[in-house]
Amino acid sequence: MMETSDEQILELIQSQSEWEKGFRLLTAKYQERLYWQIRRIVLNHEDANDVIQNTFIKVYRNISKFEAKSKLYTWLYRIATNEAITFLRKKKRKETVDIDGGDGAEVSRQLKADVYFDGDEIQVQLQAALATLPEKQKAVFNLRYFDELSYAEISELLDTSVGALKASYHHAVKKIEGFIKAKQL
Amino acid sequence: MKEETKNIIQELEALSPFLLSIRGKGSGFVIPENYFERLSENIEDSLHDYVILPSFLKEKILEGFAIPNHYFDSLSSEIEDNVYDASILPSTLQNVEAEGYVIPDNYFDELPEEIIARIEVENALDDDEKKEGFGVPKGYFDSLSDELVDRIKEEQKTLDESNDSKVIELDPQNNSKPSLLKRLRPLISVAAIGLLLVLGIQLFGGNDAGTINLDSDDAYAYLLEEDLVVDETVLENYTDEEVEEMLAPLTDESIELNLDDIELEDLDLDDLDF
């Protein structure tokens, strides 16, 4: 089955009679990618579920503002990232628990207690190391290391030059390796 | 293998063979079974609920306020189930019940009697008493002082009858003979000492022994005695040593020592009867 193009999806969503059909196609095409982007930020499945639903409501609400200057997924990715970070900040204010920055101890604790995380100790340490990185550096690492995106694709998503992205990725790799090896000692 | 994947592997071989070695493990994150199959429906439901909301609530949703799926579909029937059958109530109260207010059982049956009882109480009080909230019988304060004096006289009479022949030496200046107070101190309580002090006031005041003229000062002294408080002016009639002795707690040892000082044949047993 041929995947519906972004243009067709947008046309359907913006029509009065077929907006539901168009929206259903949009969610089917992008929900999984967006979910994992969100999940890597918020870590917790329940939180990711909340954020992705909020994301699509926001997409629906603002679809008329999309000017097609960037790819549709780029626009969706930015909305999703923004929603996830906003969600984390609100959660941090409520719970007074910092799940990013610091020494990653809180992330380790949460992941080990999470039924929807079945990684081993190395994977726990990898996530804990990521939690210590600045937001953008963490995003670069995830998009390259896990999603296997090219620097060009990442550049479009994050609106950052390829050179800056390469430097950022290299720094992130070194930091993460150092963090995990220090924990193993 | 995708071209980009090869690039990423080569990059990691140079940067960090360690991270390359663990890359195959993935992130460790898992999801519930069939999550993505259901996610589309859940998103549509959320969107459907969002679309039918008033615009001011839509803003709240986007601020992070969420509602259960199909919330508004069942809301009207839930409200109907909770509406109280107001037909049995007086018309003035039907609206109150519908607002969710409840009342105790039989409230209106007992209410008239409670109101009447309260009216009767208020009628028994005058205006000033009503203002304060505390009521007293009429003329109470007019007769209070007379009643107090009578009571004091009665009690003093009782004391005098029991101490008719005794001599109470309370002159602190007379050291020729140990005072009865000193001799009996170990056997009497501080409250009894207070009573003697009150009597002492009358003697020092120049009254005839056994005769008590009570005025406001006397009544005050009597009240002090009743409250077991020693007036400081009374203590001025005693030396510091004597006061300390009077107020010192009694111990078995002190009782024993003091008893040694008392010749039993000298002790008038009647003196012990207060």
Pick out its properties.
heterodimer; A: 185 residues; mainly alpha; 9 helices; globular; B: 274 residues; disordered C terminus
Description:
The complex is a heterodimer of chains A (185) and B (274). Chain A is mainly alpha-helical and 185 residues long. Chain A has helices at residues 6-13, 19-42, 45-62, 72-95, 105-113, 121-131, 135-146, 151-158, 162-184. The radius of gyration of chain A is 18 Å and the shape is globular. Chain B is an all-alpha fold and 274 residues long. Chain B is built from 15 helices and no strands. Chain B is elongated, with a radius of gyration of 46 Å. The A-B interface holds A 20, 23-24, 27-28, 31-32, 35-36, 39-40, 43, 45, 49-50, 52-54, 56-58, 60-61, 87, 90, 111, 116-120, 122-124, 126-127, 144-146, 148-150, 170, 173-174, 176-177, 180-181 and B 2, 4-5, 7-8, 12, 15-16, 18-19, 22-23, 25-32, 36, 39-40, 42-44, 46-47, 50, 58, 61-62, 64, 66.
- Give unreliable regions of chain A as ranges: none
**Dominant shape of chain A:** globular
Overall mean pLDDT score of chain B? 64
Shape of chain B: elongated
Please tally the helical runs of chain B, counting DSSP H or I stretches of 4 or more residues: 15
Count every beta strand of chain B, where a strand is a DSSP E run of 2 or more residues: 0
Helix content of chain A: over 70%
Query: How large is the count of helical segments of chain A?
Result: 9
Secondary structure category of chain B = mainly alpha
Could you name the ranges of chain B where pLDDT drops below 50 across 5 or more consecutive residues? 165-177, 183-191, 200-214, 227-231, 254-274
The chain-level mean pLDDT of chain A equals: 90
Terminal-residue CA separation of chain B: 116 Å
| Helix/strand class of chain A | mainly alpha
